[in-house]
Structures are given as structure tokens and as C-alpha cells.
Amino acid sequence: MKKVLILEDEASIRSFVVINLRRSGYDPIEAATGAEALRMMEQNPDIRVALLDIMLPDIDGFEVCRQIRATNSKIGIIMLTARTQEMDKVTGLMTGADDYVTKPFSPAELTARIDALYRRVGGDEAAPSDEIVQGPFHLNFRNRTLEKNGERVRLTQVEYAIIKLFMDNPGRALSREDILNAVWGRDYFGELKIVDVNIRRLRIKIEDDPTNPTYITTVWGYGYKWGF
Ligand code: CA
Hints:
Elements: E1 2-7, H1 11-23, E2 26-31, H2 34-43, E3 49-53, H3 61-71, E4 76-82, H4 86-94, E5 99-103, H5 107-122, E6 131-134, E7 137-140, E8 145-148, E9 151-153, H6 157-168, E10 173-175, H7 176-184, H8 193-206, E11 216-219, E12 223-226
Parallel strand pairs: 1-2, 1-3, 3-4, 4-5
Antiparallel strand pairs: 6-7, 7-8, 8-9, 10-12, 11-12
Helix pairs in contact: 2-3, 6-7
Residues 9-10, 53, 55-56 line the site of calcium ion (CA).
């Protein structure tokens, strides 16, 4: 999972960012204070991008940036600046930030910046936003292909869309309505049974033992869950 540190003391902004990043396939690590952010960095050395708010209850975001940079030159750092603090941009870049986003920002803007930075710091890796790797599965968005343990699994477009939805929401119970709306669209006039039929086919294709599924599990009376 692509870990992103989110340092923001305002809980509402932080959860807004977290929800949107999760939706984009990131694994957000939250911190509400500078000290907590530095602790999270130590505990999660695989964090590749950090989002740092500037005005914090303890040390300011610039100081956090400086301290992260002192030991980590590879991580991508984005400062969250307020519109009124024009100077923050200069100061942020001077202390080692790679980019800045001005509040209020749209989820699309923020995700685009993080994607771009992730690609840059990812360096030798394949463009991370083109694929999701979870357990034995490797989903490639560009080719719309799925591999299990390196072996191609042939999927219909609908099956691909279901797997993509699952992999975007690992560990989360999705109702059959959620799946129907996301894959077939809200205007689709059909029965929920079509979801079950496709899940059954998918299980035959991807489960080690389709009669005892472990990747796509049933949430009784509700829907399905993707996990390991
Ligand atoms: Ca703040």
C-alpha cells in the first residue's frame, strides 16, 4: 500500500483528506501534532509522501519538514498552506518541501499533486498510480488486467470493475447495492442477483477453493468483502 503521512491538527480537514486518499488507493497515516508526525515517520519508514500542515499546536510544519528532511532525502513533502500566507510557500520550499497546496483545496487537486509526487519519488518503480498490488493479486489499470501470482486471470469488463472496486476498498464490507451502483451505474434497472452471479464467477477464477472463498467473503444479509 502507498503510505502517505497526513499531519493536520484540524480533525475535519484531516478526515476529509483521509477519506479521499483512501478512495484513490493510498494508505493514509494520520497525525494531529508535529511530534506525532515524527513518531509516525519512525514507525512507518515506508511512507513515501508527507502532507504537512503549517499551523500546529506544538512545533510548526516547517520544523517538522526540516526534521524529516534531516534524515530522509527521498520522501516527497507537500505543505498545506493557507491562502493568506503567501510567504509560507517560499519558506516551505526553503525548508525542503517539494510542493505546496493552498487551502481550501479540492480532493481532485490534492490527489493529483500526491500522484505526481509519488511518481517522482517512486523513481525506478513502475508508475504506482497505474496499478494496485494486494496479496497475490496485481491489478493494472492501464491494461485493465489482473494477475494472480504472476499468472494472468481472464476477466470480463464487469468482473474487472468489481475487482477494481474491491481493491480500492480492501477490508470494507460492500453492500450488493454499492457494488451494483458502482459497476453497473445508478440507472441500471436490474436485480441484485446479477451481483451474486458475477461474484460466483469471479470466485471460480480467483479463489484457491471457490467453495471456500477467502479473498471475496460473504457478509451475510449485506454483501461482500475483499481481504486476505
Ligand atoms: Ca492547522
